[in-house]
Design a protein that fits this description.
It catalyses: D-arabinose 5-phosphate + phosphoenolpyruvate + H2O = 3-deoxy-alpha-D-manno-2-octulosonate-8-phosphate + phosphate. It is a single chain. The protein contains eight helices and 13 strands. It is an alpha/beta fold. The strands form three sheets. Strands 1-2-3-4-5-6-9-12 form an eight-stranded parallel β-barrel, surrounded by six helices. A two-stranded antiparallel ribbon has the order 7-8. β10 and β11 form a beta hairpin. It is globular and about 45 Å long. The two termini are about 25 Å apart.
Amino acid sequence: MTLNEVPKLKHTNSDNFFLLAGPCAIESEEMAIRIAEKIMSITDNLHIPFIFKGSFKKANRSRIDSFTGIGDEKALKILRKVSETFDIPTVTDIHEISDAEMAAEYVDVLQIPAFLVRQTDLVVAAAQTGKIVNLKKGQFMSPESMKHAVQKVKDSGSDKAWITDRGTMFGYQDMIVDFRGIPTMREYAPTILDVTHSLQQPNQTAGVTGGRPDMIETIARAGIVNHVDGLFIETHFDPANAKSDGANMLHLDNLEKLLTNLVAIRKVVQSL
C-alpha cells in the first residue's frame, strides 16, 4: 500500500519519511491534545507525514501495580478527538481479538505489539477490520521471520501491512538494532524503525523498564541512512513523570531539532 491510502495523512508527496509519534499511553485528554498539537506544528513545518500514536491501554506491564490505562472507551474517545481536532490519522496497539473491532471504530492503524506478533488470531482479527496493521517485530524474531506475519495479513484479505523494528533482545537487559534487517523487511512491507523502544533496558530489578534516551538521535540517524520508510518515536512533555515508558521517551522540547536534522540527512541520502 502507499501513504496516499492512509486516511487524513498529510504531506504524502514530500518524499520524507513518515512519523508515528506521541505518548506511550493516553493519560488524559489535555496531555494528548497538547502533545499532538506540538507534533503537528513541527511536522507541518517540515512536511513530514504524521500519525499520532497513543496506547488506549497497556497490557504488557512488568508489575501488577503498573499503570495500564484510564479506561478503554475513554482513551479511545480521546484518540478520536485528537484525530478530529487536528485532522490527522491515529494508531493504537491492541492485545486481544476483541480489541480489534473495538479500536477500529476509533483509529486508522491497529498495531500488534512485539510480544504478540506471532498470535495468528490477533493478526487476522486486525487485518479483517480493513485497517492498516502495523506489525512490530518480536524482540525474539529474525527479520526474515516477519515475512510470515505479513503473509497472515495478506491471507486475511488485506494488503495493508507495515513492519516496525523495535530492536532485538541482547542478553536479558538490553536491546540492539540490527540494521542488516531493514532491507530484508522492506522486501515484505513498508518498514518503520521504533527508535525509542529500541533503547529500552527491560527486566530491571525494580520491575520498571529503563532506557537510553541519550541515544535516540544516534539510532534515528542510522535508520534514515539505511532507508527506513518511517520512524516511530514516543515523546512527552514530562517524561520523568509519564505513566509508562518514561525512561526511554524523547522530551517533547527536543523533537523539533531532532526531526530537522533527520529531514536534512534524508535529503542527502535521497540525492546519492
